[in-house]
Amino acid sequence: MAADFCLMVWGGDPLSVTTPPELAGFARFGVLVFPNYRLAIIVIAFVVAIGLWLLLDRTRLGAMIRAGVDDPDMARVVGIRVSQLFTIVFALGAGLAAFAGIIGGPILSVYPGLDQDMLPLALVVVILGGTGSLLGSFVGSIIVGFIYNFGQALLPELAYFVLFFPMLLVLLFLGQLPTNVPQVEHRTVQSPLFQFSIARGEFSEAVDQLRSGFWNDKDRKKAAGKIENNVNVFIRYIRTVPRTFQ
């Protein structure tokens, strides 16, 4: 419906977006020539990537997001509103996508079906970089950019095959990995994240035991104490991040 509405309002012809006059022209680096606007986009991309990394790894909001993704049930126990948090994340992602469309308009133009051209690229980036990894997505996007552009220039008739071939290799490699990897039984240095993982497992086990019923008062108090201790571990894990967002 949204695509048909845009088609009705703006028509089906491609719309060209003019490059800002301040960023017109080219920059020379020896024998290499680069458009100023593309260099500006590269700088903006690095700034956004660093900002996202700081948000996720160095702020209280980022810790809440990581906790909500890792174990939403336990995050709700300590008072994190996971639904509202994910709404904020979705709005942030939509805003970044809209911003990318604005700055990419002078290069790609705007036409019906542009979203369908971008979705395969995003799919390959996620598969190459891995879900939940900001660094992986950053590296995957650079790899996809090189492969897609060089594929269109050197092998235009096989551009999509060249794009999806690395994704196929990754999927085949992941399919060959062993699934019965033995668990590590001992660890000398227990980081806050490691303690949180142990607490999450004990917390889920205690909750399941309480739900099973047929317990005496002593066992109920023991399980409740285990839940309380594990919640405290989770709170300490959250507090390891600076309280930037109050």
Explain the overall architecture.
It is a single chain. Among the domains are: 127-174; 192-239. The protein has a two-stranded antiparallel ribbon. The chain has helices spanning 2-10, 36-58, 60-70, 72-77, 82-108, 114-129, 134-154, 159-175, 192-212, 217-239, and strands spanning 26-29, 32-35. The protein has 10 helices and 2 strands. The longest helix has 27 residues, at 82-108. It is mostly helical and 246 residues long. Mean pLDDT is 76; it is low at 183-191 and 242-246. 71% of the residues lie in helices and 3% in strands.
Note the topology.
Layout: H1 2-10, E1 26-29, E2 32-35, H2 36-58, H3 60-70, H4 72-77, H5 82-108, H6 114-129, H7 134-154, H8 159-175, H9 192-212, H10 217-239
Antiparallel strand pairs: 1-2
What spatial form do the alpha-carbon principal axes imply? elongated
Order of SSEs: HEEHHHHHHHHH
Number of strands: 2
Spans where pLDDT lies below 50 across 5 or more residues: 183-191, 242-246
Q: Give the amount of beta strand, in percent.
A: under 5%
Mean pLDDT: 76
Radius of gyration, in angstroms, nearest whole number: 24 Å
Q: What percent of residues adopt helix (DSSP H or I)?
A: over 70%
Helix/strand class: mainly alpha
Biggest sheet, strands in spatial order? 1-2
